[in-house]
Amino acid sequence: MSVTIPSDQEKAVVWQAYHAGNPTRVPVVLLTNPRVVLLNEQWNAEGWTFEQAAQDAEMHVKVSLQHELYRRRFLGQFCDNQMALPERWSANMTVYNVYEAAYFGAPIDFSPNQVPDTTPCYADDATKHEVFNVDIENPLENPFIRNCMKFWEEMKTVCDGMTFEGRPVDLVPWALCGTDGPVTVACNLRGADNFMIDLVADPEYADRLMGHIIQAAIIRRKAFESYWGDRIGKQGGMADDSCAMISNTMYEQQVLSHHCAFYEAFSDRGRHMHLCGDATRLFPLMHEQLGVMSFDTGFPVDHGALRDQLGDKVEIFGGPQVGLLMNGTADQVFQCTKSILQSGVMRGGRFRLREGNNLPPNVPEENLQAMYAACLEHGVYTA
Q1: Which domains does the chain have, with CATH numbers?
Q2: Less Cβ crowding at N or C end of the chain, within 10 Å?
Q3: Residues 178, 100: contact at Cβ < 8 Å?
Q4: Under DSSP, is residue 334 helix (H, G, I), strand (E, B) or coil?
Q5: CA 301 to CA 192: how far, in whole Å?
Q6: What is the pLDDT of residues 286-302, one digit of tens each?
Q7: What is the pLDDT of residues 49-62, one digit of tens each?
């Protein structure tokens, strides 16, 4: 399948039109983290591991820069990323999705060929209330945060005076301003089975735990924004993937108020929600009662039906499931992408095409090309 890659200038025009509310074509994004290079033998010839990168500041910087290079030189062929190298590189410190559980004391696990994870540390009913002993009022003094800030300073020393591909390197300020959501983090801390039981058998505890998690996230964001000032942007989104495991009724009665508390604490921000899994049944409720105006989806999703439910003004991110991108044929990916684009989801001009959800390592090049080709052909808006 042949694709003429748009120039960086043409891609920039697509983004400008989209942000101006007068899109010419659906923009294509591929969201990744450094696992796409760490688990790719071609881009990680030295065999760096997640654990090594978490312990060695110089290696962490190298992995971050290799990831940025990969996004431009390789993935830029298949999405609307800029392909030209930047005048200055921006290296990032990545802690993946362990940060909130680790904040509350959960140990971090490094399994072979997997992103870091945590072990539930309050799974025992006899000790489950000990989570409330964690000081959330002074986040920058939290042991996990202090260790991360120390590691960031080590990375900063590495970056000072460093060049990569002949260009200087800046280290992006590290801040934890989001949340993976009260249900998801509670599952991380208690274990998913235990917390699902809590919601039914001990709803007062479940409510207190979710409130504790959200208050910690609010205080933590304010602390980091105060610490860094205008060096970091004002984010407005959150996630809560584990909501896919509960009913709409349980969500409305037991979880919605906690999501509302997070959004209301930053009422001057845009409201974005990331939910993977079979969770789109919750989106109309979140839109109507929380004012969420941007949804990042996973799989499964009926994109046309979702547009009908949310209306034309709500932004939707979505696309072919990663299993298809990984294991399907190029023709299957093309036809799936075409079907999504023709489902009605483009109506209103508030759709961004992406993998659903988070690009895995080693996706066949021809499948990425097929997804982009389908958008270049079928994602164009006509007057």
Answers
A1: 96-270 (3.20.20.210)
A2: C
A3: no
A4: helix
A5: 23
A6: 999 999 999 999 999 99
A7: 999 999 999 999 99
